[in-house]
Design a protein that fits this description.
Two copies of one chain form a homodimer. Chain A has 128 residues and is α+β, with helices and mostly antiparallel strands. Chain A has two domains: 8-72, Orthogonal Bundle (Arc Repressor Mutant, subunit A); 80-127, Dna Ligase, domain 1 (2-Layer Sandwich), CATH 3.30.1490.190. In chain A, 38% of the residues lie in helices and 26% in strands. Chain A contains four helices and six strands. In chain A, a hairpin with a 5-residue loop joins strand 2 (58-62) and strand 3 (68-72). Chain A binds chain B through residues 62, 66-68, 82, 84-85, 91, 93, 97, 101, 105, 109-125, 128, and chain B through 62, 66-68, 82, 84-85, 91, 93, 97, 101, 105, 109-125, 128. Strand 6 (112-123) of chain A pairs antiparallel with strand 6 (112-123) of chain B. Chain A binds a DNA duplex (30 and 30 nucleotides) through residues 1-3, 5-10, 25-27, 39-44, 46-48, 66-68.
Amino acid sequence: MRADYVTRPREQIAGVLRAEPRFLSAAEIHRALEQASARVSLSTVYRTLEYLRSKGDVTERLDEAGESTFMLCEPAHHHHHAICRVCGRVDDVSCAALGQIAESLRATLGFELDGHNMEFLGTCRSCR
Amino acid sequence: MRADYVTRPREQIAGVLRAEPRFLSAAEIHRALEQASARVSLSTVYRTLEYLRSKGDVTERLDEAGESTFMLCEPAHHHHHAICRVCGRVDDVSCAALGQIAESLRATLGFELDGHNMEFLGTCRSCR
DNA sequence: ATGATTTTGCGAATCGTTCGCAAATAAGGC
DNA sequence: GCCTTATTTGCGAACGATTCGCAAAATCAT
C-alpha cells in the first residue's frame, strides 16, 4: 500500500523540483541530488515522482524524445504551458476558447470531447 | 546516403498504414505484416517509418505510454487531430485561433511562439 | 524503545528502439 | 537480361529509460 511517509529522499527530491521551475527528467533530478551530495537511488527518484504525480503535486510531460519529465504544479485550475526552447522556462496559459472548440467538434464531427493536450513552444522574453 | 528505392518491405509497410487510418505503433505494424504473411523485420519497420517521416509522408505521435505511433498524413496544411479513445479514429481539426494565441502570448508574456502541439481526445460519433 | 508497515537501495529484468555488419535487392548502363 | 554499384534488409547484439524483486533501513504509532 502507499502511504505518506515523510522521508529524507522525498524531501530532497521535492526540493530539487522546487528549486527548478521547469520540466526535469528523473536523470536530471538524480544528477542534481548527487551534486548536492544527497545519495538517493535512481529507483527512488522514479518512485517518488510517481508518488507525487498520483498525489497531484507534479505534472508529467513527455519531451520530444519520449522521455518523461516532471514539474511541480498547482492542480487547482486547468491550464496549458508556454515552454521556452532555450531555457525551459514554463509560463501558464489559460485557454478560454476550449468551450467553443468542444462545441464545434460536437457540431461538425459528432465528437464528444473529454480531454486534450496543448502546449506552446517558443522563446521567452529573457532568452530573446 | 538515403535514396528512394522502391522495395517490397516499404510497399508493404505503406500498405498497412494505408489500410488503417489511425496511429499505429511499429509493433502493431509488424504484427499486421506477419498476419499477412509478409516477412519484414522489426528493424525495417522502424527504419521505414523514419524514412517516411523524413519524407513528410507520415506523422509521428507519442502515445500516453510514451511509445511512438505513426499515421499517413497530408503534409500540406497544418492541422490538429481529434482522436477517438475507443477506436483510435482520427479526424482533422483546423485551428483558426492560432494567430490570436500567438499575438496574446507575445503581448502578455513577451513569448515568441514558433511551434505548438495540440490534440483533442474523446469519443467519435460511431463509438458513442 | 518496540512492532508493524512503508520506503529505500541495489542489481537484475524489461521494453521499445537503435546499431553494426554481412547478405540480399534495386537502379542504371551495357 | 546481366553486371556494377549503391541502398536496403535481416539478424542479433547493444542501448537507454523505466520497472521490479527482495532484503535492509527508515518511519510512524503505541
